[in-house]
Amino acid sequence: MMKRLKHEWQTLSKRLQTVNLALFLDYDGTLTPIVRHPRLAKLSNQHRQILRRLNRCPHIWMAIVSGRELKEVKRFVRIPSMTYAGNHGFQVSGPGLHLVHPQAKKSARLFQKLLPALRAELKTISGLWVENKQLTLSIHYRQVRARDVARAKQTLQKILKPFLRQRRLKMTEGKKVWELRPPVTWHKGEAVKWLLRQKQSKSKRPWLPIFIGDDVTDEDAFKAVKGHGIGVKVVYNLKRKPVRSQASYGVASVREVFWFLQVLQQLRG
Ligand SMILES: [Mg+2]
């Protein structure tokens, strides 16, 4: 059962007072509210300031872990000294860190070949758009009329069928988006584990991981930190319905995410 982070802060803050903290943050829906188009999901200056201050605290390490393309998420956050994982962790860059998953390089060629066909076939569905993220592709349907969503999915599955059967790609679902990924077990959870291993190899003290995210694809990361770390899920209607999640804590809004980051900064600053 997920507990509201706000109500648990008194107890939790004691645990977070002195440890090395590895803070992993999703971007869309976590640091910015869900908007009509991904390009409109801008981080406010006030929120950037909170991230920047927290990033300067001793023994705190921060990474953004997003489904977006790496260069895009970096451009939106604009804090150079932070670490970034883009494309669900297939690309990582940060001080002393660099990764492009080898399989992702291979799959990128397939995705670039598939792209024109996908765009042509899906053109008939109004509101649907295909985003080219190089190592992965996103098919956004948040502007598609509800009655057309099933048809859109069928059309997509028809095009992808031979590739799915030959395991040349994977299809996953997020909030109003279908994603085509390289056919390997690699996701935000694996990326978080990889990042922690890198960090741990350079330090004697353990790092306590915290992951904050809002979507289905963040569940892999909550699972990766479960037990030894802390998962925090952003659930917009937290009070109204019970939530099934691998996260132990819940927050009800982006605002509450920043409330948490701020009290954490006050605790550690
Ligand atoms: Mg998200």
Task: Kindly list the characteristics that best describe this protein.
single chain, about 270 residues, alpha/beta, Rossmann fold, Alpha-Beta Plaits, 2 domains, 9-stranded mixed β-sheet, 4-stranded antiparallel β-sheet, 8 helices, 13 strands, about 40% helix, globular, binds magnesium ion
How does this model look, in words?
The chain is an alpha/beta fold and 269 residues long. It has two domains: 181 residues, HAD superfamily/HAD-like (Rossmann fold, 3-Layer(aba) Sandwich); 80 residues, Alpha-Beta Plaits, CATH 3.30.70.1020. It is 39% helix and 22% strand. The chain is built from eight helices and 13 strands. The strands form two sheets. A nine-stranded mixed beta sheet has the order 1-13-12-11-2-3-4-5-6, with helices on both faces. It has a four-stranded antiparallel beta sheet with strand order 7-8-10-9, with helices on one face. The site of magnesium ion has 7 residues, from loops.
Identify the CATH architecture of the largest domain. 3-Layer(aba) Sandwich
Largest sheet properties:
9 strands, mixed
The number of helices is: 8
Strand content: 15-25%
CATH fold label of the largest domain: Rossmann fold
User: For the record, what is the CATH homologous superfamily label of the largest domain?
Assistant: HAD superfamily/HAD-like
Distance between the termini: 31 Å
- Assembly state here? single chain
Radius of gyration: 19 Å
Structural class determined from secondary elements:
alpha/beta
> How many structurally independent domains?
2
Q: Give the ordered list of helices and strands.
A: EHEHEHEEEHEEHEEHEHEEH
Task: Give the overall silhouette.
Answer: globular
**What average pLDDT do the residues reach?**
95
Share of helix, binned? 25-40%
Bound molecules: magnesium ion
CATH class of the largest domain: Alpha Beta
Please give the order of strands in the largest beta sheet. 1-13-12-11-2-3-4-5-6
Function: Removes the phosphate from trehalose 6-phosphate to produce free trehalose.
EC number: 3.1.3.12
Pfam families: Trehalose_PPase
Pathway: Glycan biosynthesis; trehalose biosynthesis
